[in-house]
Design brief:
The protein has seven helices and five strands, in the order ββαβββαααααα. It is of the alpha+beta class. The strands form two sheets. It has a three-stranded antiparallel β-sheet, with helices on both faces. A two-stranded antiparallel ribbon has the order 1-2. β3 (31-37) and β4 form a beta hairpin. α3 crosses α4 (93-111) and α5 (134-144) packs across α6.
Length: 194
């Protein structure tokens, strides 16, 4: 695998792509950058092209990849957080305005990567009027930082620390996958660690 260059000059390394493939259980598609890293250092959110290499329109610019993160988010969904946030969104005009701003920001971020007419005006996660997918909203908050997506920020604030108690699951080898990321990336004798 070769490095992929993002629109802002960032790269996603072959090691990152390999780790994301292990997280997803398949080869990642259209990844242009690691948008956020887990405290363990592994990618947990990637930034993707709005049109995948096979031509499929893909509105999800920020995609959560870490299985422990996505599992923690799924727990929030099953506990009814989406319904709660949707009810608040309908009752709070300030929250609705901030969520619309998050939608606009998401579209602007995606436009930096290219225009895809089939998904023009469509962001992700149900924005700006619905709460459809906490995974997308949390990924957006992790990628752009706090203060942009109020519902993503709130969901993120309710998450358990997915990288605890025993470190990121991505750093443990899958069956027959060879050495863990930690073992595979350990420096040779005399090599400096970044």
């Amino acid at each position: 695998m070769t490095s992929t260059h993002g629109p802002d000059g960032t790269t996603v390394s072959p090691d990152d792509l390999q780790l994301v493939a292990r997280q997803l259980g398949r080869a990642p598609r259209g990844v242009v950058a690691v948008a956020h890293r887990c405290p363990c250092g592994a990618p947990d959110v990637v930034r993707t092209q709005p049109r995948l290499p096979d031509g499929t329109p893909f509105p999800t610019t920020y995609y959560a990849t870490c299985p422990r993160l996505t599992g923690a988010i799924s727990t929030l969904e099953t506990q009814g957080l989406m319904r709660e946030l949707q009810a608040r969104l309908g009752a709070d005009t300030g929250l609705a305005a901030a969520y619309r701003h998050a939608h606009d920001r998401y579209l602007a971020d995606r436009a930096e990567l290219g225009q895809v007419p089939e998904i023009d005006g469509v962001s992700a996660g149900g924005m700006p009027e619905r709460v459809k997918c906490l995974h997308v909203l949390v990924a957006h908050s992790l990628a752009v930082g706090p203060g942009v997506n109020p519902l993503g920020d709130e969901a993120l604030g309710r998450l358990r620390q997915w990288w605890h108690p025993d470190g990121c699951a991505a750093n443990r080898p899958a069956p027959d996958a060879g050495p863990s990321l930690d073992e595979a990336s350990a420096p040779d004798e005399g090599e400096a660690r970044p």
